[in-house]
């Protein structure tokens, strides 16, 4: 292993050493570190250490720089003093690194000699230092990152699988590539980015990455830092596993409490009220139930906070608990919400669901407002029914609010009868085979309560395109969609077509 001046400067004991000249030659190889002796020839690769106090204007400093340059030395380390500008200019001109220590030079000399004698000892010392700093107790990621940052004197962070910081800060976080669970090394313009995966059992992909950015002289320790990074990643892994056990225990408790609430037949007993209070759940007030399901398997315990964050980002404070293959949640108000407040809440919930759909194949059902503990169970039951229907309706964005269903929801069972299905097919027949996917456009338009903008957002087309298609629908069917009865009949016909897979 070649050791240069920059590598020596990266030693923790040398952290206070300042480079005052010859910075362009810090890559010069260091072969030996010796105290300065007057009249002795300087060997190639020798780092000369001046151990006795010296004044900044001493002419012998300039003479020493020339001797080091003539002998091919690696540089000069001075005790704490500020060399004259002329001396610094000479060091730059001769390409001799001129270093100034803020501690006893003899201590630095010993540390440098140990590095030259056994380079692996520095890496072992770093691993031991990180291990001792972490200690035996479980530490949260913030503390692990802080230990790594202090030991390497460099920015460090815990990143999620998208490169976003979970703890700490890292200017070059985007350089971490999510993928194979192997340590990564990325060369930067003036340094190195190291990343180590944090793996959990039975997970083929890393849950997160522990990364450190080594720049300047710190980059010289890039070869010895990975084992220390692995030790820190192990500490994060242990904390995540313990935290996961706690989350799963809490999830089971919440799920059991929710099950008891949903089975209520009357006022909740005192024990159930106390358990709900311990969990921070309000049973009083007016509740709007939510049901969020996923089409593909998902880790509901691990991703529960993601669901809660998506709701909070839209200004919706809700209790979220794992339930079955998804999440059951509810939003509580002190007073009965107005119709306008309910519509505004539904709009925010739709936005939250769209955000979740970036990473989850999620569908959402929303119940109506109901008061009290029994009302909570009723609203959740409505939301569960709505979510079941929403899962089969991509034209609505897989989102359904019970209040938006109106009479159509009450008549939904009737639309499944043998009598209505042929009539529905006949009613929609003129639209089949026409360009523009008119049946789906009509269904989305009616689901969106005749909103061109909402229909365009669901279908991913321009609102003018929707307007033109709806005009053609009215002409082909000879109907006026401003009439309530005609809208209802067509809405039911579109539902029947969707349920039967016809169109």
UniProtKB/TrEMBL annotation:
All residue ranges annotated as the PucR C-terminal helix-turn-helix domain in the record: 438-495
Domain CdaR GGDEF-like positions: 266-389
A Pfam family per the record: HTH_30
Family: Belongs to the CdaR family.
Protein name per its UniProtKB record: Helix-turn-helix domain-containing protein
Organism for this UniProt entry: Saccharopolyspora rosea
């Amino acid at each position: 292993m070649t050791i240069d001046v920059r590598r020596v400067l990266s030693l923790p004991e040398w952290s206070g050493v300042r480079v005052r000249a010859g910075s362009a030659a810090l890559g010069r190889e260091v072969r030996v570190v010796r105290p300065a002796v007057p009249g002795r020839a300087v060997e190639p690769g020798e780092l000369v250490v001046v151990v006795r106090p010296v004044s900044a204007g001493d002419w012998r400093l300039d003479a020493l720089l020339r001797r080091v340059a003539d002998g091919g030395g690696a540089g000069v380390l001075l005790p704490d003093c500020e060399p004259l500008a002329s001396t610094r200019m000479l060091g730059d001109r001769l390409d001799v690194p001129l270093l100034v220590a803020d501690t006893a030079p003899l201590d630095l000399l010993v540390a440098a000699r140990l590095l030259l004698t056994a380079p692996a000892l520095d890496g072992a010392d770093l691993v031991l230092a990180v291990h001792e700093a972490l200690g035996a107790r479980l530490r949260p990621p913030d503390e692990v990152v802080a230990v790594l940052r202090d030991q390497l004197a460099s920015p460090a962070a815990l990143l999620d699988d998208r490169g976003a910081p979970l703890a700490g800060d890292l200017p070059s976080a985007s350089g971490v590539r999510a993928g194979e669970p192997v340590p990564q090394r990325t060369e930067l313009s003036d340094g190195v980015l190291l990343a180590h995966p944090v793996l959990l059992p039975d997970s083929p992909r890393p849950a997160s990455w522990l990364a450190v950015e080594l720049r300047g002289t710190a980059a010289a320790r890039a070869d010895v830092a990975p084992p220390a990074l692995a030790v820190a990643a192990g500490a994060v892994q242990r904390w995540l596993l313990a935290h996961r056990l706690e989350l799963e225990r809490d999830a089971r408790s919440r799920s059991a409490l929710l099950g008891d609430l949903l089975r209520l037949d009357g006022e909740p007993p005192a024990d159930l009220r106390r358990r709900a209070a311990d969990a921070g759940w309000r049973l009083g007030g007016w509740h709007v139930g939510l049901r969020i399901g996923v089409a593909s398997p998902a880790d509901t315990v691990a991703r529960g906070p993601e669901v809660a964050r998506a709701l909070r980002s839209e200004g919706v404070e809700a209790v979220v608990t794992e339930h079955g293959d998804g999440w059951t949640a509810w939003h509580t108000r002190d007073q009965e919400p107005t119709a306008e407040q309910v519509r505004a809440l539904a709009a925010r919930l739709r936005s939250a669901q769209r955000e979740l759909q970036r990473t989850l194949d999620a569908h959402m059902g929303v119940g109506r407002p109901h008061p009290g503990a029994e009302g909570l169970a009723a609203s959740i039951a409505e939301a569960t029914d709505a979510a079941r229907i929403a899962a089969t309706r991509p034209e609505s964005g897989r989102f359904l609010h019970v209040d938006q269903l109106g009479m159509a929801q009450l008549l939904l069972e009737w639309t499944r009868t043998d009598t209505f299905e042929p009539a529905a097919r006949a009613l929609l027949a003129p639209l089949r085979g026409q360009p523009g996917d008119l049946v789906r456009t009509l269904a989305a338009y009616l689901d969106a309560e005749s909103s061109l903008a909402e229909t365009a957002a669901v279908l991913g087309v321009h609102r003018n395109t929707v307007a033109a298609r709806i005009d053609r629908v009215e002409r082909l069917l000879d109907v006026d969609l401003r009439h309530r009865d005609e809208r209802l009949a067509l809405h039911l016909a579109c539902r029947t077509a969707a349920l039967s897979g016809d169109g």
